[in-house]
Amino acid sequence: MATRMREKAAYRRENKDTRPKAHARYLRISPFKVRVVLDTIRGKAVNDAIASLRATPKAASPMVIKLIESAVANAEHNHNLSRHDLIVKEIYADAGPIMKRMQPVSKGRGHRINKRTSHITVILDGVEEN
Q1: Whole-structure pTM value
Q2: Rounded to whole angstroms, how far apart are CA atoms 35 and 29?
Q3: What Å distances lie between residue 45 and 29, 42, 49, 52, CA to CA?
């Protein structure tokens, strides 16, 4: 089972993605609702993305703003990148665990309510010089 473990670990270290990123996990909002917001900012500059999110009246907007600010702080602190040179290269929302609840209905039955959670990931990158 441990065949070539050191070689595999070295390969993973060499090919690791070094772009600045941030994760928000177990957010109590449906990933379907979050993806609507994420699709509007993908590929934009960080400052433009935050400005458009502040004007967006969606429940996911404050969460995404906070996540992008965290990724920008990671870029500035860990990678010595300037905020003005960053763009939102990748941003996506995956489904987290679902909390299952019951709603009582007539005749002693119950309907299930799925309270969905999300994992959001944002990856920033520098502006491409052409």
Answers
A1: 0.85
A2: 11
A3: 25, 9, 6, 11
